[in-house]
Amino acid sequence: MDTSTLSESFKQKVHKAMEKPYVWQEVEDLQTNEQLLAQKYLYGKLSGREFDRRLTRIQSQVPSLIIKSLDELEAVMDILNIGEEIKRKTLQDMSFQYEKAVKQGYLCRFSVWFYETIYKGTAMYCATQIYISK
Q: Which of 21, 77, 98, 123 has minimal Cβ neighbours within 10 Å of its Cβ?
């Protein structure tokens, strides 16, 4: 994707999101907690009401960016000048996760988290988010 065709507002949105990176441990903890919560709910170990309450608390930790399509995700990686091999593998993985969720009837989007690395650089983590209907 050619970054010159991206809107200035989209580019600004990405750069603004990078201004306040998370710490990796925060991102990892949120991801783990959300996965465990979904497993408990799916196995009937958690009521729908309790699931909603806990999920709302976890999801109140807003990702750096919410991306609604693979094209937007690719655009973010283009803005950040991500290497072609990494971009290709990431898009392949996210496409697989997205298609899997959609085939199962879930609404899906992507969360992007920018976080500070050990060497004080900024890194990006992305994952699919699915809405589990009751």
A: 123
